[in-house]
Amino acid sequence: MQKKLFKDILAEHEETIEQIRQKAHYLHQNVNQTYGDGLPYGYHLDMVAAYAAEYGHHVCSNADDVVPLFFGAFYHDSIEDARQSYNDVKRQALQHMTDEQALTATEIVYALTNDKGRTRAERAGEKYYAGIRNTPFAPFVKLCDRMANVAFSCSDTDHFNHRMKEVYRQEMPHFLEAISTHSADPRFSIPEEMVDALWKCIGC
Questions:
Q1: What's the half-sphere exposure (Cβ side, CA atoms, 13 Å) at 30?
Q2: Strands of 154-197, DSSP E
Q3: Which of 37, 78, 175, 204 is the one with CA 20 to 30 A from 165?
Q4: Is the pTM of this model over 0.85?
């Protein structure tokens, strides 16, 4: 999709996307989840959505893709961290979208929900990444999520999350391969422009 068209569609759905944003913020605030050294978790959600706004034209083929993509960006941690079930998320998606769009949006959230595990590697193992690769827009939203976390860890504004910088650096080759589908379908793609930006950031 042309970037200008994507931005025009974003502007057209600005009110709906803002409603989704506010509801997602509330879910994480309601369980007292924070980001880094005491920031509201909405700070992270907004960063993820900002990357979706910057690069989403690469993965969206039509107007119906846009709202589900942003729902996925804002709700991507809602099952894992905000005590929501799959059906809870779908019910909320249906308030803003058609049945088909709501299914797409909910599947993004489900795909990005970590598996049960005692370690970081167990929680994000091959089954987890296979689910991401097999779900439209999930590789892109996962990349937006990682870009947000990497940018924050490199910002030198927060000692709590700064320690993750080296973890992300070491994970980069495996992470990029794990979310790459090498598909011609843009819904499953990870834009090269984003990958280049992530490598540049992680080199900080």
A1: 11
A2: none
A3: 78
A4: yes
Amino acid identity, position 194: M
Largest pairwise CA distance in the chain = 44
184's tokens: 């011609």
Residue 106 · residue 85 · CB < 8 Å: no
Find tokens 């984003």 and name the residue. 194
Q: Out of 52-56, 144-148, 198-202, pick the least confident.
A: 198-202
Token pair 């089954």 is at which residue?
Answer: 127
Residues in CB range of 128: below 8 A, 6 or more apart: 114, 115
Of 148, 132, 136, 134, the closest CA to residue 53 belongs to 148
Whole-angstrom Cα distance, residue 177 to residue 56?
20
Contacts 24+ apart (CB under 8 A), 10-17: 10/53, 10/66, 12/63, 13/66, 13/67, 16/67, 16/96, 17/67, 17/70
Which CATH number applies to 3-202? 1.10.3210.10
Task: Give DSSP secondary structure letters for 100-162.
Answer: HHHHHHHHHHHHTSPPP-SSHHHHTSHHHHHHHHTSTTHHHHHHHHHHHHHHHHTSSS-HHHH
Sequence spans of domains, the chain: 3-202
**Cβ pair 20, 70 in contact under 8 A:** yes
- Measured between alpha carbons, how far is residue 137 from residues 29, 116, 121, 142, 159 in Å? 26, 23, 23, 9, 32
